[in-house]
Design a protein that fits this description.
3% helix, 52% strand, single chain
């Protein structure tokens, strides 16, 4: 069993910037979105996220801003390929940021997660990646267990 708990201080509080692929900051433009809950593969297309869920054409959740007092995003029980990109998730200090549970093939790329209890929760996650994310002012920046074939880089 792999137990993971990384703590990070505030790096860029309430930032509206994201890392580009060359690790420089670039401005991004998000549209406000309500918190969402995905509990099976069909929910991606039902919610209107583009893509087909394959490795070549993952579902894409992109350029959104979610600010909430409960949770921002919860994705569970999926095997479809999906990516959350260039998005901002903000809480009030006790909010759960992005929670990924019992999922295979997730990608969290160039996102900012701020002011949450758990910024990014990865529980029973397989063959997934977290890259170039800014996670700060959270009680637990990244929290997780039972990770298989996952990569976390440029945090």
């Amino acid at each position: 069993i792999l137990m993971l708990s990384l703590f990070q201080s505030s790096l860029t509080p309430r930032s509206t910037f994201s890392h580009s692929t060359d690790n420089s900051l670039r401005a991004v433009s998000q549209s406000t979105h309500s918190p969402f809950n995905i509990t099976d593969n069909a929910n991606f297309s039902e919610m209107g996220w583009p893509g087909s869920g394959t490795e070549e054409d993952p579902y894409v959740i992109e350029d959104i801003l979610i600010e909430d007092n409960d949770y921002c995003a919860y994705i569970a029980n999926t095997t479809a390929y999906f990516e959350i990109r260039n998005s901002i998730f903000r809480g009030n200090g006790s909010t759960e940021g992005v929670i990924i549970h019992n999922v295979t093939h997730a990608g969290i790329i160039e996102c900012s997660i701020q002011d949450c209890n758990i910024g990014l929760g990865l529980y029973s996650v397989n063959f997934s990646a977290v890259r170039a994310c800014d996670i700060g002012q959270c009680n637990r920046g990244i929290d997780g267990f039972l990770l298989k074939g996952c990569k976390i880089t440029d945090i």
